[in-house]
Amino acid sequence: MVQIYTLTLSPSLDSATITPQIYPEGKLRCSAPVFEPGGGGINVARAITHLGGKATAIFPAGGATGEHLVSLLDDERVPVQSVPAKDWTRQNLHVHVETSGEQYRFVMPGAALTEDEFRQLEEKVLTIESGSLLVISGSLPPGVNTDKFTQLIRAAQAKGLRLIVDSSGDALMAALEPGNLELVKPNQKELSALVRRELTQPDDVRTAAEELVTSGKAHRVVVSLGPQGALAVDKTGFVQVVPPPMKSQSTVGAGDSMVGAMTLKLAEGASLLEMARYGVAAGSAATINQGTRLCSLSDTQKIVDYLNKN
Ligand SMILES: Nc1ncnc2c1ncn2[C@@H]1O[C@H](COP(=O)(O)OP(=O)(O)OP(=O)(O)O)[C@@H](O)[C@H]1O
Ligand SMILES: [Mg+2]
After folding, report:
1. How does residue 252 score in pLDDT terms, banded at 50, 70 and 90?
2. Pocket test for ligand 1, best of 251, 257, 304, 306 (most atoms within 8 A of CB)
3. How many domains does the chain have?
């Protein structure tokens, strides 16, 4: 069986709370916070667990917040390989305002990584058995420049790991430099920044995704399009997957659920269409729930059944 690992360089301990109204100066009374693990790769590993698979999360953990993060993942039965870090793991805050229904997401900068901490994370990656899938997701923390990131990807590929990347901006650009990524999942904005042009016409997104495949950057590109689903491209062609109309409550975790689902399908050797359908189903399943919840297996299965019939 193909093993799955995820790498999160900028993990977080997320807390979610509810307040009746939001206004300046006065005290905003909030409900007791609910803590959840956060950070791209960590959420991908959690989504894979929700879907009945197994993925080991590799990440730096610092201070009491880092310990809390590790214990939350233990509770969820997500296998962890953490590297102790000096800087405390960041804490993000998600506030749901009851009267307006608005969501506020306060995102702190990632904890800085020292050279030695980065080296230890790299060592963990380079001991993964050849042929395994490694999902690298999320932003780069202070202390990690894009060159180091590109080198890590090259070294992982030289060890025979198959890479899946979900990131943005310079980090995404740096990840694509070595080429041969198994899968990359930009949203439309990330893809547009990557190819340095606006994607306005219906065919623009497809053309840009095809360029990444034909230039050898990635074997598969799945462009996620929010409520419009996704466009998936590989060397054999492209497929478009549109989710059923649904009442979305919160899109938090949609991208990570989608990447988790597609990684599971890649591990099974599924086709491009099967992978894209399962990814869209899990992404859309994540939006059914209010708050920060990821996809559930039953919602994902219901949506994928619909997609297979229509
Ligand atoms: N409003 C929505 N309604 C239905 N499905 C949605 C909605 N938003 C997202 N999805 C589903 O989730 C998938 C990923 O969402 P999206 O394109 O927003 O990714 P993203 O921009 O990477 O999100 P994230 O903010 O989580 O990183 C979509 O392909 C779609 O299947
Ligand atoms: Mg995303």
Report:
1. confident
2. 251
3. 1
Name the residue range of residue 171's domain.
4-309
> Residue 45: is its pLDDT beyond 90?
yes
The pLDDT tens digits of the residues spanning 132-166 come to 999 999 999 999 999 999 999 999 999 999 999 99
Active-site residue set:
256
CA distance 297 to 52: 7
Q: Please check the confidence at residue 302 and state whether its pLDDT lies above 90.
A: yes
142: nearest Cα among 60, 68, 81, 45: 60
- Please report, for the domain that includes residue 24, its CATH number: 3.40.1190.20
Which residue from 164, 185, 224 has its CB within 8 A of the most atoms of ligand 1, so it is best to mutate? 224
* Cβ–ligand 1 contact at 255 (below 6 Å): yes
Residue 226 has pLDDT above 70, yes or no: yes
